[in-house]
Amino acid sequence: MTGRGDERGAGENRWRRRSMVLLAVLLPVVMAVTARQSIERWWNGRDRIVREVAAGDQVDFGGARWQLHALRMAPLPAGGNIPDHAMGVVADFRVQVQDADLPGNWRDCTIALQDEQGRRWMPTHVLPLPRTDASECLSAVYSGVKAGATLRIRQAFLVPRDAAAALRVTVSLARQKPHYLRFAQHPRLVQ
Amino acid sequence: MKRRLATLLLLLAAAAVLFAMQRSTPRYDELTGPLLVSGRMGQPVRTRLFDANVERVEFARQLVYERFDRQTVRTTSGLWAIVTVQLSARSRSVNVGSARWVGPQGFQYRLSDRLTLAPGQSPPTVEPGLPRRARYFFEIRPDQVGGAALWLSENLAPRLDSEARIALDALPRASDGALDVMDTFDMNAAIKERP
Amino acid sequence: MRTAFGKIKTKLATGIGSTVAVGAAAVYSIFGAGPPPPVTQYAAGASIEAGRWLVTPHRAWVSRQRVYGVTIRPGQQALVLEADLGNRTQQSTASYADLLRPAAIPGVTLADPVVAQVRDPQIGPLLHPGMPERVVYVWVIPGSATPPASLTVDVVAETYKPVDNLYGTPGWFNPAVVGQITLPLGQPPAGAEQAS
User: Residues C38-70, buried b or exposed e (16+ Cβ, 10 A)?
Assistant: First the structure.
């Protein structure tokens, strides 16, 4: 390839510079466009937007009307599977089902306790509760309930005694994310 | 002539660099794999969701437990390794359910599944603000005792989540330096002992 | 300008690739058309390297009662094969369901085997690296079927690929029969059976 030499016009040089600058701009734009869907899905899949529910109120959420019937706590003696300084908290809901498609509406039903710092306590199964007709949220999904029926949902939690008084119940469903419920009631000490 | 030699050398150097880059590129399962946190026994190892402090390791030739007034003995062709870990959760309830005893050559021994009917075998779920002690039971080959590590995580093979890898360096030794292996480990007595 | 090789040689050079390909295909089909090689036969006590597992079969029998914790309902019977399984992999695993494939018995559809550990009444035990355990494979068949005089099972082995073609992760692939075990169906050993 002799004979071509280093003659490049001034126009070519200018376009080379412009292309390099455009590359630095285009690469992030392309990455943003291809990642947009994943980012949206992640952003909307988190519990971000809270719907506060005052004490005693009913709220429509996920095809049902939720009401926090009782939130009780009692200190637990240490032993077996219960650590020291533990408080047992039981949340009782009365839920009136409006849309019978529970497996779809209530997928990933998560009832948790949250404190001011954002720590979350998930339901526990180590507390021996008396058997009633109340069920857990995930078991209620497949109970074949018809529209209009009222379900009793009960979940138990194991929390430290010093944090128990300031806890609030949150309910989140997969289809409703990023919205989630937070009930303003604090647990009431029994016995 | 010198220019040609220089070009050839440059080419070979470029080929060597590219070869090294290709060989050292991490694979997909390393890129999306666990984020490791290393530690040793006796010190708290902090991961994203939980802190783990391996308190002690015990060895036994057989396990005994009593349930409904019936005593059951679990024997093994190797050794039973019982690891006691103090766990505490940072921000939410964590079930530290995946534990592996990894020997010096990389053999991974998963939690024994023969103890599901034993008393006190609840999943090692730890709640924020309520640290607890969890016991993990493994069946290992006797030569996998020294130079071993405990791998703890929430899920088996965590994807882009922490895994605590704790070197098990403080093994129980008898006065003459040999490994201290109990004949029988009583699981009922172990549950009764509180912190 | 003369071409480098001349006309005939050029034609040969361009055709050499396809000629070699056709020739290789012909050779493969000639050699592959013969009868398949015979499968290695194993008897009781022989150790068989089968991919993930080192199998040492011991004995086989027919059972109508509960065998090592596996329930057999009335009106059913079971073909039981007792073997030592040694885990040759790096991790504890319980993937032994596809290891032994019994030969078809006329009139019976064989279900997946239930594997139980002889040491404890544990179904589907996790087997750990370097620690062989004695297990029984239990195939439940209807009680009305006539069991054969001897149990023939194929040993299916997979090969380890450190990097697979799809995800680049290690795994065991390509199951292939590496041997065949024939054991006479005898009497159950003492202690194997308990009344349900």
Answer: eeeebebeeebebbbbebbbebbbbbbebbbbb
Summarize pLDDT for B155-180 with one digit per residue, the tens.
888 888 889 999 998 888 888 878 88
Per-residue pLDDT tens for A132-189?
A: 888 888 888 888 788 888 889 999 999 999 988 899 999 999 888 889 999 998 999 9
In the complex, which subunits touch B with 3 or more CB pairs below 8 angstroms?
A: A, C
Once rounded to an integer, what is the mean pLDDT over residues B31-39? 90
Structural domain includes residue B21: no
Residues A128-131: contacts with CB within 8 Å, 24+ apart? A129/A90, A129/A154, A129/A156
Q: Has residue B86 been placed in a domain?
A: yes
Please check whether residue A158 touches B, CB under 8 A: yes
Chain B positions in Cβ-Cβ contact with residue A165 (cut-off 8 Å): none
Tell me the whole-structure pTM to 2 decimals: 0.84
Q: Does domain C41-189 have CATH number 2.60.40?
A: yes
Check whether residue A82 and residue A167 sit in a common domain.
yes
The answer for A 77-116 residues in CB contact with B (under 8 A) is 78-81, 83-86, 112
Most A CBs within 10 Å, among B127, B192, B193, to test the A interface: B127
